[in-house]
Write a structure and sequence with these properties.
By secondary structure, this protein is of the alpha/beta class. The protein has a single domain, classed as Alpha/Beta hydrolase fold, catalytic domain (Rossmann fold, 3-Layer(aba) Sandwich). The protein has 4 helices and 3 strands; from the N terminus they run E-H-H-E-H-E-H. The two termini are 16 Å apart. 28% of the residues are buried.
Length: 116
Amino acid sequence: MEVTHVVSQAGALDLVAAWEDGLGDGAVEAFLGHPPGPDDARYDPAQQLPLDVPVWCVHARDDEVVPFSQSAGYVAKAVAAGATAELVEVPGGHFGVVEKASPAWAAIRGIVDGIG
């Protein structure tokens, strides 16, 4: 199946920056099996720019797990590279993007419902 659109939900979109910031108590190194680098481009969204499909990065500024800067930085780099990317700021911390009663979930549903 072909990917036609991407909605990131509070994603760690720059593995090198996430590793440097120590996010997730070593989650990036645990995921890759080593510190991230140029050979990990196929796993690191920031190293795959520009994508040829639209990307929405839904993220809360008050996210206590993955900093808002992960999405903001990704969108800035994506747009600079000529991609279509949008930063969607929502309330609700890190887990609001998966809580069905949250404003963040409503924003995500709005994005998905608008694809067509």
